[in-house]
Write a structure and sequence with these properties.
235 residues; five-stranded mixed sheet; 8 helices; globular
């Protein structure tokens, strides 16, 4: 099975191609250009580097969230377009699960977090053994960091933190959890597009281009502001 994987949900713009014999290509970049500028050249570059084509793909996988609203929309919209034009099925991949999958085995709880600002994170919790899909212990949720740490302590004894929320909240997590908090090194701390492709290879759940939708854990800020204004005018 050949899978093209795309991720624009966070600070990294990533593309990978997975085949039956393993990962053929993985491109990741963080630069001053927007994901909309990076993404299509990276996809074209992955096909050029591997000698494969969109037509030779069996599936197209994309991270549907949680993450940046603009980034998630870009990745989903791009894959919808590619899938619609080629007739290829899509696979929706969860960002936090993909982070956990990229972390590998850990004797404890894997805790992917994204910074949601205002002292909150998008967080989840998993366990994982070598070569196995992460086992979910906590659903994706927007949550205050202190409350997240409290919930984690009911799940295990050691906690591996990764994701773009990790450096932002590192000192607070040390204060809340002490030596029980472990922080992933740079190669394991980000969402890897190769992990997105690998997760997509493990599922039978496919959707067509029209059915592929983003996963938002809360409304975009513009929508929340609109509701606040409407509620104020109703008083």
């Amino acid at each position: 099975m050949h899978i093209l994987a795309v991720d624009t949900s966070g600070p990294i713009c990533g593309v990978a191609i997975l085949a039956d014999d393993g990962l053929r290509c993985e491109h990741m970049v963080v630069n001053k250009r927007t994901h909309s500028v990076n993404l299509m050249p990276m996809i074209d570059g992955a096909f050029t580097a591997t000698g494969l084509t969109l037509e030779s793909m069996d599936r197209i996988a994309v991270v549907v969230g949680p993450g940046s609203f603009t980034g998630v929309r870009l990745g989903v919209s791009t894959v919808k377009g590619l899938a619609h034009g080629s007739g290829k099925p899509c696979v929706a991949v969860d960002a936090l699960e993909a982070m956990a999958a990229g972390a590998g085995a850990f004797d404890g709880v894997i805790c992917p977090i994204q910074d949601a600002r205002a002292g909150q994170v998008y967080g989840a919790a998993f366990t994982a053994a070598e070569g196995s899909r992460p086992h979910r212990l906590m659903e994706d949720t927007p949550i205050a960091l202190e409350r997240y740490a409290e919930k984690l302590q009911t799940l295990g004894g050691r906690f591996l933190f990764l994701g773009d929320g990790m450096p932002v909240h590192r000192e607070a997590l040390k204060r809340l959890l002490g030596d029980r908090a472990v922080f992933a090194p740079a190669p394991m701390s980000c969402l890897r597009p190769g992990a997105v492709a690998w997760l997509a290879s493990l599922t039978e759940e496919e959707v067509d281009a029209l059915s592929l939708q983003p996963l938002y854990l809360r409304a975009p800020s513009a929508e929340r502001n609109r509701l606040l204004v409407e509620a104020a005018h109703a008083e």
